[in-house]
Amino acid sequence: MSVSAGTGWQPDRFLDHYQLRTIPLGDDPDGESPVTATLIRRAEAGARIDDPRPVAGAVLYVHGFTDYFFHEPLADFFTDRDYAFYAIDLRKCGRSRAPHHTPHFTTDLAQYDEELGLALEIIAREAGADTRIIVAGHSTGGLITALWLDRLRRRDPARHALVDGLLLNSPWLDLQGDAVLRTLPVTMLIKAVAAVAPTRVIPQELSAAYGESLHESAHGEWSYDLELKPMGGFPVTFGFLNAVRNGQRRLHRGIDVGTPALVLRSDKTHFAKNYSASTDRADVVLDVRQIARWSGCLGGRLTAVPIPDARHDVFLSVAHAREQAYREVDAWLTQTIRPGTHNSDPTRKESTL
């Protein structure tokens, strides 16, 4: 499936100075058709299509579970460094979710390959085939993008050649919690329920501590839509968790994303049911020791940096932590993602928008 030549960009109703484009997708293998994805861009990205000035490249940002794109400071960071910024709300997520959809539901993370490939096609068409693209993924989006690039490298080298780097922000590389949750009997139970009742919700108490640490209506400083990103998160289904566990086991066997990768995470974990000051200076969603353990399975040239006092989303951390996170990205872009080079063909010309 490919995207049409028309632009189809419309103003975004959530963010000023942003535009969105709906990407129609094929039939949903999980029976919730129709499904679409939504590509979001800074308005400047479209304005510079015919601008002859050279740019550093483009960025495609992929959100996590119970999330959508609202991270304007992250877009500002890349735009200030002359990257055209794009983000995608995956099928059944954020702007792409319809009333008939189970939020963030899939039974196979590889289903997202469709919209991610189409997003690359759109960015390359707008920015030029020689534009180097940084893929950025947060949490579940980090797992999704890593597995996608491994498959893309093997199955579609020409499209993979558009990607020059992978930026992972607290990627979900293993199942957090007690060790018993990662045993074979529990794994087989998840698989068995997922096979017969994939949309059944896993019985668990969801903590709102992370959401309260972020949102301006509670203890945080960030403004976002609580219908698209609820304070306590969306329910987790057996089908979705089975898809995540399948993806994590594949990554644990070793993959190769085929590009340099930067992994950012907090320096500590603090699981909590209720908000406290400690919630603001730790990852309260994932076990950072697992991120550290499994990052080496990504293949290629890896840079892994723990950020002191960072939250689960390092770019939504307290000021000093997010400032360090941005400094680390800056250093990585300058030292590893070098202007005038390309991961697959160093003879390619400097890109322009």
TrEMBL record:
The cross-references to Pfam families, in alphabetical order and at most eight, read: Hydrolase_4
Record-linked Gene3D superfamilies? alpha/beta hydrolase (3.40.50.1820)
Mind telling me which InterPro entries this protein's record contains? AB_hydrolase_fold (IPR029058), Hydrolase_4 (IPR022742), MAG_DAG_Lipase (IPR051044)
* Top-rank taxon, per record: Bacteria
Q: What molecular function does GO assign, one term?
A: hydrolase activity
Q: Which PANTHER family match?
A: PHOSPHOLIPASE-RELATED
What is this protein called in UniProt? Alpha/beta hydrolase
